[in-house]
Amino acid sequence: MDTQSTRFKVRLGLFVAGGFVLFLIIIFLIGRQKNLFDPVFKLTTNFYNVSGLQVGNNIRFSGINIGTVGSIIILNDSTIQVDMIIKKNVRQFIKTDCQVAIGSEGIIGDRVLIITQGSSEAQSVKDEQFLSSIEPTETDAIIASLYITAGNLEIISGQLAEIMVKVNNGNGTLGRLIQDSTISENINQMIINLKKSSKGLDENMEAAKSNFLLRGFYKRKEKEAEQLKQDKLDESNKLKEEEAK
Predict the structure, then answer these.
(1) What pairs with residue 124 in β-bridges?
(2) CA–CA separation, 5 and 1 (whole Å)
């Protein structure tokens, strides 16, 4: 009986010790995640809508977790104050012109606060510094916008289908142009006539140049063109000489 009592006491002691050790490990992990054992400082920002942000969510800077959300307080019907607990060793990198935005861990993950990078000329933040915020875009608004876009695309595709049916049936100007072979032949003949007219015009111009009455006029025009070309060349050479000096 004494042996069984001793074994029971040993087992009970081991169970209590194991539970105590497990409790300490859990406290350590939670404290490490919530920055309870690291030197920290506080930053503050305001939002109109926190979009599902909760106390304890991570805060990121340059893609690195640097703190957690300390508290979320409703100040009035249009302002929500968010307090941020940040590791003290990153304070020098956070500038006064940084902004705070609300993001998410993946597509459907928890919300996170994202601190954007500031300019190198700005000063580092101080404890309880206030940072400006960027209001988040609600997922419901994005989905509603996508529904509107999809509806517009459906209307446009329907209208295009109607136009193509009319074109294939030979309705309208474009349909008649594609389906009616007579119109197509007339357009081809018109293009041929234009080419012939252009060729005839070129021949007339050559004949006019050989005419002794107009020969002087064309020679004078050629001289003027050559002189203009020479003047541009001289001006270009002059500019190059000035740049060389």
Answers:
(1) 95
(2) 6
C-alpha angle 75-57-60 in degrees, rounded to nearest 5: 105
* DSSP secondary structure of the chain: -HHHHHHHHHHHHHHHHHHHHHHHHHHHHHHHHTTSSS-EEEEEEEES--TT--TT-EEEETTEEEEEEEEEEEEETTEEEEEEEEEGGGGGG-BTT-EEEEEESSSSS-EEEEEPP--TTSPBP-TTEE-EEEPPPPHHHHHHHHHHHHHHHHHHHHHHHHHHHHHHTT-HHHHHHHH-HHHHHHHHHHHHHHHHHHHHHHHHHHHHHHSHHHHHHHHHHHHHHHHHHHHHHHHHHHHHHHHH-
The closest of 149, 147, 57 to 102, measured between CA atoms, is 57
For residue 112, is it left (φ>0), alpha (ψ between -120 and 50) or beta? beta
Chunked in runs of 10, what are the mean pLDDT values of the chain (245 residues)? 65 76 71 63 92 89 90 91 92 92 79 90 91 78 73 82 71 62 69 73 59 59 78 77 70
What is the rounded CA–CA span in Å between residue 57 and residue 78?
A: 22
What's the longest Cα–Cα distance across the chain?
Answer: 145
**51 within 8 A of 141, measured Cβ to Cβ:** no
In angstroms, the CA 137 to CA 103 distance is 10
